[in-house]
C-alpha cells in the first residue's frame, strides 16, 4: 500500500499537509484549552452550554467582537503554544518529518514548531505566510506554507468563524498556490481528525477539479493517516480519492511516530536498494 507514496517521496513528488495532531505530540494545548481560556477571559460560564453548543471558531469570533481584535488572544496562544527547543529536539515525529525531506510542507498550525525543528536539524527552508513570501521561493529549498496563518502576523491567522467562512472561497493566494502545487503531486495528510471544514472542503474541491478535467484516472494517489479506524470517514475520503492509512494494534499516541518511522525506513531502502 505504501509503494506509490514511498516512490513519490523519493522523487520529490509528494507534499506533506500537517495538522494540530503533529504539534500535540510535543504537548501543544488542545482546542478545549483555548475554549476554556476564552471563556475565562470573557467571563463565560461553560456550564451554561452543552458540549456541542460552543466551538473555538464561534468563541474566537465572539472574542473579536468583544475585544475589538484577535491580537491579545494571538499573543496568549503564542506564549502558551511555544514548545521549548529541548522538547522539540527529542521529538521523533518532528525529526522524521525533517528526515523525509518533503519539498513542500503545508500546515494549518500557527505555531513555529516545524520551522524550529528544521532550524535544530540544520535544514534550510522558506516560510510562506502570504503572497509576498511566494516570491521568496528558491529552487531546491523546502517550503513551509502556513496555510492558516502564523503567530508573527495577526492578520494572517484563520481562527474565528468569519476567517473560516471567507477561506471557503478557495481563492486566496495560498489557496491558488495549493491548487497549483497539489494537482500534479501526491499529498499526505497527517495530524488531522478530518473534522476541519476547511480541509474537508479543500479535499473535495481538489477531487472535483480532477473529476471535471476528464483525466481523473491520471490523478496521483493521495493519502490520509488516521489514528483510529472509522469506516464512515474512510468511505467518504476514498470517494474523494484519498487512501486511508493506519497503524493497527498501536496506541493512538504512538501511531503517527510508528507510521513515519516505517515510511522513512521504506524510503531509505528504496533509495539504496537494500
Polypeptide structure, described:
Helix content is 50%, strand content 11%. The chain is an alpha/beta fold. It has 2 domains: 3-28 and 85-272, 3-Layer(aba) Sandwich (Rossmann fold), CATH 3.40.50; 31-80, no CATH class. Strands 3-4-2-1-5-6-7 form a 7-stranded parallel beta sheet. 31% of the residues are buried. InterPro entries: DHS-like_NAD/FAD-binding_dom, Uncharacterised_Sir2-like. This is Sir2 family NAD-dependent protein deacetylase.
Structural class based on helices, strands and sheet pairing: alpha/beta
- CATH class descriptor name of the largest domain: Alpha Beta
CATH architectural group of the largest domain: 3-Layer(aba) Sandwich
Biggest β-sheet, characterized? Answer: 7 strands, parallel
Helices, by number, come to: 14
The protein's oligomeric status is single chain
Strand content: 5-15%
Poorly predicted ranges (pLDDT <50, ≥5 residues)? Answer: none
Strand tally, please? 7
Q: Order of strands side by side in the largest beta sheet? A: 3-4-2-1-5-6-7
CATH level 4 superfamily of the largest domain? TPP-binding domain
**Termini distance?**
19 Å
How would you describe the shape? globular
Radius of gyration: 19 Å
* CATH fold-level assignment of the largest domain: Rossmann fold
The average pLDDT is 89
SSE topology string: HEHHHHHHEHEHEHHEHEHEH
Helix content: 40-55%
Number of domains: 2
